[in-house]
Amino acid sequence: MSCTSILFPAIASWDLLTRCAESFRNMKLNVTVRAVNEDADTFLRYADQPMIAFVMLFVQARSERGEARMQALTRDLIDAAIEHGGRYYLPYRLHATREQFFRAYPQAGEFFDRKREYDPSELFQNEFYIKYGRQPEAR
Known about the structure:
Layout lengths: L1 E8 L3 H9 L7 E8 L14 E8 L5 H20 L3 E2 L9 H7 L3 H11 L8 H7 L6
Antiparallel strand pairs: 1-3, 1-4, 2-3
């Protein structure tokens, strides 16, 4: 199983749903729709305005091919969300490209600058930071 969430302004919901429907053909899928209030406190906020979230639980093959298909689908969903003024939920898997991440979270550059300010030796790292936060020459 794999889970992903995309968030977008309510006005975009029908266009986005129509675009995503093609990706869901012939898939076992559970979708929960949630209203998400604006978050003014979190630095890497996924709801900078009232949003609608599609929380999707997919059944996927546990194989390299299944993982590759899920990564491609997730990236397509992220692109659709970004094109409609939305974002994706960060705590799931690291399927988003670096470009998608920075398009969805434009404040991320400042976030990582602050992280390096407080941790200049980069003692504290995880896979999220390594993929999205490290300077390209440090990878």
